[in-house]
Amino acid sequence: MSWKALQMMMERWLSPRLNTAPNRKADGRTVCASLLSGLLGCDNEQTTGKTMNNYEQAEKYLNDRDYKMEVILDNGLHRYLKFTNNGRWDGHFFITTWPNHLCISGDMGTFVFSRIEDMMYFFKGEGVNPSYWSEKIKAETLFGGGYREFNFEKFEKYIKEKLEPLLSEECADYVDKEEVQEALEALESTEEDEYGAVDFMRSLNISGVDSCDWSWDFEEYTFHYLFACHAINFACNTYLAAKPDNEVAA
């Protein structure tokens, strides 16, 4: 689930409690964003002046915590490792391995991967590769939206890039500018999720505009999946570095 989605959920829950008037919607969002910053333990655009994407949020969430490893089971390819932030359970996770599989579970959701016999060596090394690693997912969590989610901001940006140029004088001969303006106004009031985007496209009717071949690639990796990638990489590097007989796999 993205920062934007979390903020929207909290805003809907808090709105009647904040008694926020329509012209103070931004103030309500500021309150929600500030609360989320505290809950997740990471800054957002309200405090940094820059909106962090899911990748940056996930990486920061991991790096801002002092994770310690506890080896519960270590029997060849069968391992069970626990990682907590100095014993605290918020953000904790477990790494479980068995032949050809690695599972991350805990406070941030569950993902199971499969590729090689010892998955520790698949995920070790510098940096993460969310795109390639996603091809190895065998099971994904329901919590946090799985590994990919719809990004309404990408959709909104794309639609504006398609429609706003049609308001120019060069397009006046073959496009109804009033219909374009009405569509842009409707976009501003569209529910900010995939269902809202689909409803908007279904109702889009501008003379001279054929939207049938427009893109529909507005997904991104979720915060929880990206955290899992960073956490797995960290866990594998930590575990292998602690092994006295550690060898670098070919």
Description:
44% of the residues lie in helices and 19% in strands. The radius of gyration is 23 Å and the shape is elongated. The strands form 2 sheets. The chain has a 6-stranded antiparallel β-sheet, covered by helices on one side. With 250 residues, the chain is of the alpha+beta class. It is built from 10 helices and 8 strands. The chain folds into 3 domains: 3-52, no CATH class; 62-148 and 222-242; 152-217. The chain has helices spanning 3-18, 25-40, 45-48, 54-63, 119-123, 130-134, 152-163, 177-188, 194-203, 223-242, and strands at 67-75, 78-85, 88-98, 101-106, 111-113, 137-140, 148-150, 219-221.
Mean pLDDT: 80
Element pattern in H and E: HHHHEEEEEHHEEHHHEH
- Report the total helices: 10
Beta-strand percent range: 15-25%
Number of domains: 3
Rg calculated over all Cα atoms: 23 Å
Number of strands: 8
Shape: elongated
End-to-end distance: 36 Å
Q: List unreliable stretches of 5+ residues.
A: 13-50
Biggest sheet descriptor: 6 strands, antiparallel
- Estimate the helix proportion, in percent: 40-55%
Strand order of the largest sheet: 1-2-3-4-5-6
Structural class: alpha+beta
